[in-house]
Amino acid sequence: MCEQKMSRMYRSYHDLKSGHILSKMELAERYGVSEKTVQRDIEALRDLLYEFYPTLELLYDRNERGYRLLDEKGKEKAALLYSVAKVLLESRAFVKEEVSAILDELTARLFVKDREVLCQLLTNDLYHYEELAHGKKITMLVYELAQYVKEQNRIEMTYEEEDGRVVTMPINPLGIVFSDFYFYLIGCTTEHERKGEIVPVAFRVDHIRSFRPLDHRYVYPPSERFEEGAFRKKIQFMKLGESMRVRFRYKGTSMETLLDRMPTAFIVKEEDDDSVIIEAEVYGEGIEMWLLSQGSDVEVLEPPELRQSMRRTIQEMYDPYKND
Questions:
Q1: Burial environment of residue 203 by CB neighbours within 10 A (0 to 12, 13 to 18, 19 or more)
Q2: DSSP 8-state symbol, 279
Q3: Which of 51, 118, 151, 298 has its CA at 20 to 30 Å from residue 168's CA atom?
Q4: What does pTM read for this prediction?
């Protein structure tokens, strides 16, 4: 296929993708060729679309007396992207500049008309979008850290703790997870490694001031390999603590929400009073926060140390009010 023909077809495709209707006469005048040549270009373009973009169809519109491009999946694509965009905006994970860049990338393959409709639907969400307090761009940082996770390459990072202290430490990066507004780097400190323990620690990515790769690769046995998906099922509020099996009585009405929040949970027994006994494999500190948030709908049964901790915390919460 000659270079001139390829150039004509590319420009025509770009115009069609932008929503323009093209007539043979217009194209013939634009490129200084005959209408028969334009017809051959159209047929060649139609063949290429059929081979590489089967959902796109080049049709002749008799009312407009020209050719238009139809995407059979256009509405479906726009619907999918709308749902993704709503989740993205609701997460508030990125600064507004990054959100706009992500949306531009997501919608770039849509036809102009579909893209305009999608943008109109999201206008209000974008206008009222509130960035998180840290105000940092993090997409590149998250991606770079993910590379070291993949390569199992130890890093040294300078990190700001929640109390404002700044520490520098070597860690083995195990995975990247997202939870409740923030991205977290899950890592194992060399202190734990020296003790022969693989204890995951969560570090907020936006609190990482800097990091550099070290000339060391870590290797853990397959039985202790960190899996982000399995890990995510066991944590609540990104508070780790020790892994434990808990059993509690649940008297609430939203069992579906509970199981969505705690994927490892399962019903052990249904009681006569309409309550249920639940068991789950979780990390301790986070599960205690979640259980407390459920108020009187839950009662911890096991393990005893968690039950005692719940009693102490509830008492401490009650003390400021007991003299009212």
A1: buried
A2: E
A3: 151
A4: 0.66
